[in-house]
UniProtKB/TrEMBL annotation, chain A:
Transmembrane segments: none annotated. This is Caffeyl-CoA reductase-Etf complex subunit CarD. Signal peptide: none annotated. The lineage of its organism: Bacteria, Pseudomonadati, Verrucomicrobiota, Methylacidimicrobium. Its EC number is 1.3.1.108.
UniProtKB/TrEMBL annotation, chain B:
The lineage of its organism: Bacteria, Pseudomonadati, Verrucomicrobiota, Methylacidimicrobium. PROSITE patterns: ETF_ALPHA (PS00696). CDD domains: ETF_alpha. This is Caffeyl-CoA reductase-Etf complex subunit CarE. Residues 31-223 form the Electron transfer flavoprotein alpha/beta-subunit N-terminal domain. PANTHER family: ELECTRON TRANSFER FLAVOPROTEIN ALPHA (PTHR43153), ELECTRON TRANSFER FLAVOPROTEIN SUBUNIT ALPHA, MITOCHONDRIAL (PTHR43153:SF1). The keyword Transport applies. Keywords: Electron transport, FAD, Flavoprotein, Oxidoreductase, Transport. The gene is carE. One of its GO terms (biological process) is fatty acid beta-oxidation using acyl-CoA dehydrogenase.
From TrEMBL, chain C:
Keywords: FAD, Flavoprotein, Oxidoreductase. It is an enzyme of class 1 (oxidoreductase). Residues 368-432 form the FixC-like C-terminal domain. Its cofactor is FAD. Its EC number is 1.5.5.1. It holds the Pfam family FAD_oxidored. Coiled coil: none annotated. This is Electron transfer flavoprotein-ubiquinone oxidoreductase. It comes from Methylacidimicrobium cyclopophantes. Signal peptide: none annotated. Belongs to the ETF-QO/FixC family. The keyword Ribonucleoprotein does not apply.
Length: 293, 372, 432
């Protein structure tokens, strides 16, 4: 039995915990915000690596982004990925999810010329774009079966080309059977990530990363990428308007917390007429019951 | 919109593309909602979307369409009539055995077909596991723009395009996204972000049964089994009262104080990511950017700092109360009332005050809350 | 068989990257190991970068390094509780020629600098902590890291792991840090719109301002404070000897808060958005706390070797200088086919002695003890000079000569003639 040939899409994103908004103009201050491998993609990587641990095969990490995004791929390499491709071209600037999925799909097609691809993994979503659209988009463009929000892959049979995946939904888990090649978006929290060994780190640091420009990624049609290939247009970017007034804080004396709490509850009830009515009805009823006893 | 956000380049792009509106796109009319349904009924987000669709359609002077699809049972008609009661003018109803249970292939095929047939201008879906999966596939197939997780939908005066506003950069900013030269314009909205519209029982509308060719043999992916979530599965998004705790509660055991209060109020317990990561509570109860969006009548935040990623999930709650030892905690910027103090000490007192003044369950008027 | 490198450099701060870059350029196979997520991710500095030492390594760094602003103005303030007396040196000419100092953000600078080393052929791995030196007999032959299969070998290990240098201490190369040999500095970065900063400091484009502060703000502890302008932020910090903090029992952040509230600073800091608060040690011991600098198969560079000129707040440049010189020493010995033994590596120290590094450090070797033993320099004088300025400048009908007499009296009252004289001598000796 041969091991699967896997592509994992990973993106480099600004660490959103460290992003600040310009207090006056409301624009993003990117200065000094470190870029990280999209945390959700780590779960996709781990899932792919586990399959490789079990069945062998080969994993290519694929990223579209500026030259610095190499760092994200380096990280993927250190975790045990075999090969890494960075798709990088000025022409991609301004791509929305539709254009991104086009570029990635083309790159995957190129990769499958080297060796047919059995499985593509993506994260559930990115923390900057936050859309979860790229994975399904790539699947559609490649005509691969889409399995989204997957939390477990109990069966992957390379001989028959079948896969069983657990797909999370709000109400329960769908157990889906499908056929390769397919694209899987991996739910977060499915696994604990791994820690690379020193020789793996050294190998990853040494390994060249393939950088493909538009042409190398097999993209002829310029109207499908970058701004031109992006139906969505950002009209304006602005800071959320905060409520102007701050919370009304209940003043209280350390000795009498219960008074403060009671006052707070009164205020809440005052804002919720229905509840207040019910509360007083209860009180009345309680009173009547007490009397009738 | 992953790459595009916030770079000055797009502004230029917007300006450049505006004048060349393709007249063929004018054929596209109507605001559609894909009605998400399963065995247990329609997901409330669909009704919320119909409310928004109604507003948009009125502004555009067009109709509201609802797509109701599933296995051919009476339920389809019931749900179609409900859709009309919530604001739909036309319901496009598709019944087919292969539609039992959601699968990407048949559903995206049927939705694409309907769009091609009837050319709606706007297509809205819930940002649920189903809606996101379906919307992405449909948008890619139709090669049109899709804006995920919107918090506000409006019509842009100048272009008459859908102005879909959504948080970006971890909720630090909002951006308004337009799809100018492509139709339909698609957007997903999370449950509980939009208010639920009033239901008008005797609204009139048309139900159109649509035929779509679907063959089970052609669908590769099969649903072998459905394993409903067991145990502690609540839909926080639908709770009317939420008592949420954060890192400030200091240890897992103190979450019991939240439960007591939640019980007294007939509400549910929620948490910050910090609390979830500490292992104090089930991840399903996380509220915020990477958790749930909630919109209860009352939100009590105990020991929660109010990080932006948390606030985006709860700040449209009707009434927010915060308890925090730090008077400068950002949570007080979104709260209506606050107490500066130790939540661990104050929560039991609050529970007692609530018990004394109002009885459990009765606080929540509709049957919506606290679904088992 | 385990892989073997010509050199392993521990740490990717300025010292480590300077050493690694130099070695790689000399054609050596170098492994650089950094524990942070990326170079600079945890590093703390004011931060002013002095150009010279970097220029020797990367002559055109001005074109590509992530620099914030170049300083056209330096102020020195002597603060008492409510006022300050200061000097300002401003020379916009600095913006014309090649400026000699810049403000930087270490997280970005270190990343860039390490990248340069990588481009020269250094193999850099991050998120990996070196736990121990590996020895064969007395000779250091490699390091052990916290990763699985984590041992790796080299002809020489260069310790560039910063002021704490747990490694050097564990290996017995350096004694435990004395609390009097290091300063604890705390620092905040506050963010502002660029225009606000430029208006407040009267600067434009790439110009920047640095303010160094001494006086009562340190509550008699030996230390200084600073404020530097970056592009969209400013760094404000204060540092004092760790031993003083311990004795006075003032938490460092309290000191920083008080500094920020000082009437001279408050208006400059208004409405900033706090982004980061960091604390870090700075070697202060100077010349006399420099440890043994090399041995069989190892060398020590940068803060790990206590190379900081605290009087002039120079550290990162000394780090680069020592990193480069250490690497050049290794290259030279290797070229000559000489083994990297303790005696051969002594060449490193000899090289340093003839560079500005050792010369400067030797010059100031008495400063600290003088200050430590004469705390009135840090409390009484700032107050006196501020009072004096106030007296002299106030127009209140008193004639100027009478004012001068009053000032002289106030000085004598607080410090006798003899005291004043001996203070002058002490200071002259310390800084000569
Ligand atoms: C990509 C990304 C996504 C994220 N998504 C989410 C998300 O979906 N939801 C979410 O919640 N977070 C999210 N976060 C994390 C978020 O940034 C914050 O770290 C988190 O919300 C903080 O949780 P907290 O308020 O419980 O903890 P802290 O920030 O540690 O705050 C604890 C608070 O408790 C107060 N306190 C301490 N003791 C007491 C006491 N005895 N009584 C009362 N108050 C006390 C403190 O003053 C403090 O304000 C995300 C972060 C990132 C980077
Ligand atoms: C508040 C403050 C202000 C300062 N201002 C200035 C200034 O304005 N100008 C100036 O020139 N200097 C200044 N300095 C001093 C300057 O920061 C240092 O002298 C300089 O950073 C020393 O460089 P280094 O490479 O020796 O050490 P560091 O910059 O400390 O680098 C050491 C590196 O080694 C890594 N490391 C440590 N241990 C291990 C391990 N076991 N395994 C792997 N990696 C490890 C660390 O993560 C770090 O990246 C200031 C210092 C402080 C604290
Ligand atoms: N530029 C990109 N390069 C590689 N993979 C990407 C890129 N953008 C998105 N992805 C993948 O698509 C997933 C969903 O991204 P998004 O639609 O942006 O939320 C991510 O988790 C990645 O796996």
């Amino acid at each position: 039995m041969r091991g699967p040939n896997i592509v994992v899409c990973v993106k480099q994103v600004p660490d959103s915990a460290q992003i600040r908004v310009h207090p006056v103009t409301g624009t993003i201050m990117r200065q000094g915000v470190p870029a990280v491998l999209n945390p959700y993609d780590l779960f996709a990587l781990e899932e792919a690596l586990r399959i490789k641990d079990r069945l062998g095969g080969r994993i290519v990490a694929l990223c579209m982004g500026p030259p610095q995004a190499e760092a994200a791929l380096r990280k993927a390499l250190s975790l045990g990925v075999d090969d890494a491709v960075l798709v990088s071209d000025r022409a991609f600037a301004g791509s929305d999810t539709l254009a991104t999925s086009f570029a990635l799909a083309n790159a995957i097609r190129r990769l499958s010329e080297e060796k047919p691809i059995d499985l593509v993994f993506t994260g559930k979503q990115t923390i900057d774009g936050d859309t979860g659209q790229v994975g399904p988009g790539v699947a559609k463009r490649l005509g691969m079966h889409l399995l989204s929000y997957v939390c477990r892959i109990p069966i992957l049979d390379m001989d028959s080309g079948t896969i069983v995946a657990h797909r999370w939904t709000e109400r329960g888990v769908q157990v889906l059977t499908s056929r390769l090649p397919c694209l899987i978006t991996v739910l977060e929290g499915t696994s604990q990530g791994r820690f690379a060994s020193l020789p793996e780190m050294i190998r990853a640091a040494r390994q060249p990363i393939r950088v493909w420009d538009r042409k190398a990624a097999g993209i002829e049609d310029l109207t499908k990428i970058g701004l031109k290939g992006s139906p969505t247009v950002v009209g304006k970017v602005f800071a959320p308007s905060r409520r102007s007034e701050r919370a009304e804080c209940i003043e209280w004396e350390p000795d009498h917390p219960e008074t403060a709490v009671a006052l707070l509850w009164e205020k809440v009830l005052a804002r919720q007429p229905e509840w207040a009515a019910m509360a007083s009805a209860d009180a009345r009823k309680d009173g009547e019951e007490a009397r009738s006893e | 919109m992953s790459e595009a956000e916030g770079k000055p380049a797009e502004k230029k792009g917007a300006a450049r593309r505006k004048p060349t509106f393709d007249p063929r796109l004018a054929e596209y009319r109507g605001v559609w909602v894909f009605v998400e349904r399963d065995l247990s009924g329609v997901h409330p987000v669909s009704w919320e979307l119909l409310g928004a669709a109604r507003r948009l359609a009125d502004q555009l002077g067009s109709e509201v369409g609802a797509v109701v699809a599933g296995v051919p049972e009476e339920a389809l008609d019931v749900d179609s009539r409900e859709a009309i009661a919530y604001g739909a003018d036309v319901v496009y109803q598709v019944g087919h055995p292969v539609l039992a249970g959601y699968r990407n292939e048949p559903y995206s095929k049927l939705l694409c077909e309907l769009v091609k047939r009837h050319k709606p201008e706007i297509l809205l879906l819930g940002a649920t596991s189903l809606g996101r999966d379906l919307a992405s596939s449909v948008a890619t197939t139709l090669e049109t723009g899709l804006t995920a997780d919107c918090t506000e939908l409006a019509i842009d005066r100048e272009s008459r395009a859908l102005a879909a506003t959504r948080p970006t950069f971890g909720g630090n900013l909002l951006c308004t996204i337009l799809t100018l030269n492509y139709r339909p314009q698609m957007a997903t909205v999370r449950p509980r972000v939009l208010p639920s519209p009033a239901k008008v029982r005797d609204r009139s509308g048309q139900i159109r049964k649509e035929e779509i060719e679907l063959h089970e043999e052609e669908i590769v992916t099969k649903i072998a089994q459905f394993l409903p979530h067991v145990g502690d599965q609540v839909d926080l998004a639908l709770s009317e009262v939420i008592v949420a705790g954060g890192k400030g509660l200091q240890k897992a055991a103190n979450f019991a104080l939240l439960e007591d209060l939640a019980l007294a109020l007939g509400g549910e317990v929620g948490a910050t990511r910090a609390a979830v990561q500490a292992g104090w509570i089930d991840p399903q109860r996380q509220i915020g950017q990477t958790g749930k969006t909630v919109r209860p009548k009352l939100y009590i935040a105990a020991g929660i700092s109010g990080a932006i990623q948390h606030r985006v999930g709860m700040e449209s709650s009707d009434l927010i109360v915060a308890i925090n030892t730090d008077p400068n905690a950002p949570i007080f910027e979104v709260a209506h009332y606050g107490i500066v103090g130790d939540a661990v000490a104050l929560l039991p007192l609050l529970t007692r005050a609530v018990r004394g003044r109002i009885l459990p369950e009765k606080a929540t008027p509709s049957g919506l809350c606290a679904s088992p | 068989m385990k892989e073997r490198f010509d050199a392993i450099v521990v740490g990717a701060g300025p010292a480590g990257s300077a050493a690694a870059l130099t070695l790689a350029r000399g054609g050596r196979k170098v492994l650089q190991i950094e524990r942070g997520e990326y170079p600079g991710s945890k590093n703390v500095q004011g931060a002013i970068l002095y150009a010279d030492s970097l220029q020797k390594l990367i002559p055109n760094f001005r074109d590509e390094a992530p620099l914030e602003r170049h300083l056209i103005e330096q102020r020195l303030w002597i603060l008492d509780d409510r006022s300050y007396l200061g000097s300002t040196f401003r020379s916009p000419a600095a913006s014309e020629a090649e400026p000699d100092r810049y403000t930087i953000l270490r997280a970005q600078f270190d990343k860039w600098f390490a990248k340069k080393a990588e481009e020269a052929g250094v193999l850099l791995i991050c998120e990996t902590t070196v736990l121990d030196l590996l020895r064969e007999g007395k000779r250091v032959v490699g390091v052990r890291t916290d990763r699985e299969d984590g041992e790796v070998y080299a002809d020489v290990v260069i310790l560039a792991d910063g002021v704490n240098s747990v490694l050097a201490r564990k290996a017995g190369i350096r004694p435990e840090l004395g609390a009097g040999e290091v300063a604890l500095a705390v620092k905040e970065v506050l963010f502002y719109p660029q225009e606000t900063l430029e208006d407040r400091f009267g600067i434009q484009g790439e110009e920047g301002v640095a303010i160094e502060m001494v006086g009562k703000i340190t509550r008699g502890m030996v230390g200084t404070a600073f404020l530097y302008t970056n592009k969209e932020s400013l760094a404000v910090g204060i540092g004092c000897l760790l031993s003083d903090f311990r004795r006075e029992k003032i938490p460092p952040y309290v000191l920083l808060e008080r500094l920020k509230e000082h009437p001279a600073l408050r208006p400059l800091l208004r409405d900033g958005e706090m982004k980061e608060y960091t604390a870090h040690l700075i070697p202060e011991g100077g010349y006399r706390s420099i440890p043994k600098l090399s041995g069989d198969g190892w060398l020590i560079v940068g803060d790990a070797g206590m190379f900081v000129n605290s009087v002039h707040r120079e550290g990162s440049n000394l780090a680069m200088e020592t990193g480069r010189i250490a690497a050049e020493t290794v290259l030279e010995l290797k070229e000559a086919g000489a083994p990297l033994t303790e005696s051969n590596l002594r060449l490193y120290r000899r090289r340093l002695e003839s560079s500005f590094v050792m010369k400067d450090l030797r010059k100031y070797r008495h400063v600290h003890e003088v200050l430590e033993n004469n705390r009135h320099f840090l409390t009484t004088y700032p107050e006196l000079v501020n009072r004096a300025a106030e007296t002299l400048l106030r127009v209140d009908g008193v004639d100027k000569r009478a004012k001068e007499r009053e000032i002289a009296r106030s000085f004598r009252k607080r410090r006798s003639y003899r005291g004043l004289l001996s203070d002058a001598v002490k200071l002259w000796r310390a800084f000569r």
